[in-house]
Design a protein that fits this description.
The protein has no helices and 8 strands. With 100 residues, the protein is mainly beta. It has a single domain, classed as Immunoglobulins (Immunoglobulin-like, Sandwich). Strands 2, 5, 6, 7 and 8 form a 5-stranded antiparallel β-sheet that branches. A hairpin with a 2-residue loop joins strand 5 and strand 6. The chain is globular and about 55 Å long. The mean pLDDT is 91.
C-alpha cells in the first residue's frame, strides 16, 4: 500500500478558474469589482475600461459559490448579464457566481 504524501487533515488545493466579468458603463470614471472572492475590498479588483464603455476584469478563483456586485462611480450596480441574484443585508441584491 502506497503512503500518502499529504499531511493528515490537509485538504488538497482546488484549481483556480479564470473568470472574466464585465459591465457596460460608458460614462463612468471608476468601476470596481467587489465580492466574496476579494472580501468586498474595493482596492483588490479595479476594472479597466475598454472599447465602447465596456469595463472588464479577469479574476482567478477556486470552485465555489460567490456573491458580487460592481461599484460604479460610488454607486452599487448588479451585473445585467447575470439573472442569478440573492437578497443581501442592505435591502438590495447581489449577483451569484457559481464556479464548478
Amino acid at each position: 500500500m502506497a503512503k500518502s504524501t499529504k499531511a493528515p487533515g490537509v485538504k488538497p488545493q482546488l484549481k483556480r478558474k479564470r473568470i472574466t466579468l464585465s459591465i457596460e458603463a460608458p460614462y463612468a470614471e471608476t468601476v470596481l469589482l467587489m465580492g466574496d472572492f476579494n472580501q468586498w475590498n474595493e482596492k483588490k479588483h479595479p476594472m479597466k475600461k475598454g472599447k465602447h464603455g465596456m469595463w472588464q476584469k479577469i479574476i482567478m478563483v477556486p470552485p465555489g459559490r460567490y456573491e458580487y456586485r460592481f461599484l460604479v462611480d460610488g454607486k452599487w450596480r448588479n451585473d445585467p448579464t447575470n439573472d442569478q441574484i440573492i437578497a443581501n443585508c442592505f435591502g438590495s441584491t447581489n449577483n451569484i457566481l457559481n464556479i464548478i
